[in-house]
Structures are given as C-alpha cells and as structure tokens.
Amino acid sequence: MSRLLPFESLLNTRDLGGMPAADGRRIRPGMLIRSGALAAASERDREVLASLIGTVVDFRTDKERAEVPDPVIPGVRTIALPVIESLSAGVTREKDADEEALKILVQRAAFAKAYMCGIYEGFITTEAALAGYGAFVRLLLACRDRAILWHCTAGKDRAGFASVIVEELLGVDRETIRADYLATNRHLADNIARMTTDFIRTSGMNDPEVSDALRYMFTAQADYLDAAYRAADKRFGSFGGFLRDGLGIGDAEREELCRLYLTEDV
Length: 266
Fold this sequence. Notes:
Elements: E1 3-4, E2 14-15, E3 26-27, E4 32-35, H1 43-52, E5 53-58, H2 62-67, E6 77-80, H3 95-105, H4 109-125, H5 127-142, E7 147-151, H6 158-169, H7 174-187, H8 189-203, H9 208-218, H10 222-236, H11 239-246, H12 251-261, E8 262-263
Parallel strand pairs: 4-7, 5-6, 5-7
Antiparallel strand pairs: 1-2, 2-4, 3-8
C-alpha cells in the first residue's frame, strides 16, 4: 500500500514507495507521489514539497486551475495535463456548475454509479485521457533526479487512475492495486462526510437515495476500476494493450521505468 505523508494541510498525499512490484522488487521510496489539490498547502507544506519534488503534474481542467491555482513552489515546475476536457460533476470541481450538475445526478443512485463508471471508461477511450496519461508516463521517464507528484482535486479519480497506470507499469499485482485505489476512501473519510453534509444542507435534497448517490459520486468504488479494465479489454485487448497501443508505452519504456523506480531495498 502507498504511505500517507504527514503534511499539515494537504489531503490524500501518498508515497507509492515500498509497494511490492515486479520480480520481487519494491517501488523506490520518495520518488512517486500522488495527491489531492495543493492549493491549501501551508507554508511548512510548501517547504517540504520544495525539498522533495521536482515536478508537479496537474490533471485538472483549465477552469479548475484558474479558479484554484496551485501554489508557487520554488524550484518546482508544474505541468498541466488535463485528462477530462469538460465539467464532470463529482470529478472536476468547477464552482459554478458542479452543484447544479450534482442535483441532477443524485436523483437516482443507479444513475450516479453508471455515470462514474462512464468517467472511468473515458480514461481508456477518450483522446484527452490517452494524450494526457501518455504524456504523464513519458514525464516519469524524464524525471530522474527528484520526485514527481501528480494530483487532481481530491486525488480520487484522475490522479487515482494515474496511480493505477504507474502501478500496472511497475508490475504491482491487481489485488494490491485495487486495495491502494480504495484506500482513498479511508484517507478522505472526513472530507467526504463534510461534502455530503454540505450538499444536503444547501440543496435541501435529503433522502436515502440521494445519500447513496452522493456516496457513488464522492468515493472510490471497485466497480469504477472494473469498468476501466473492461474498457481496456474491449478496445485494446487487455490493460497491457492499453498501455502499449493507447499510451504508446512499449516494453523498452516499461523496462526503463522499472530500472528507475524499483529497488531491491526499501
């Protein structure tokens, strides 16, 4: 499992280091870091980030970044790689539209779940996702000296799926990948409860169906990951085919990633 890092104000910021990977090796600590949004970083958090990372990858939309920009961290470059081009309620968090879209989606829990499964299928099939995630993996090949951190808003969907891609490339087994993906729910439990309470209070929509639908919108679900794997099988023959033919990452690149990010020691 990835390890939660002890930042003062950042949510769901985790080091993949130590996770078991290919050939009995483990992911090298302090190099691959996933996170939620960085905007709330305290002064001390920014100092720690500056000492640790060299590159930030921001998967949010242009509008999200304009509304809530990342903090300036000395010596750290930020690269925007949006993998979703437009508003996706519960995933992107554009302020002016997210609540109204949620009001429509949460009227039926089954619809909310199907909607989120569709988002994950889009991570496999849309041109924006293929371009963004492919560029992300190529950055991993280029960032050799200092850590790379990737994030979206909650670190749940876009950044969460980026972590799945990294773990698949490094040979982490599916059971461990799934457990690490779902660990977001534990790390964001207080935030999920607050968002749910706030939405019910401001919208006036307070019944069990809405609560179930919000759970689907605000949490990581194994069904979403399964939807992505099925989409990869359907379009590319396998998840390996998605990595190779969708993202353009062949055997040589995978071997280089393992050389860069795996170690015998932890």
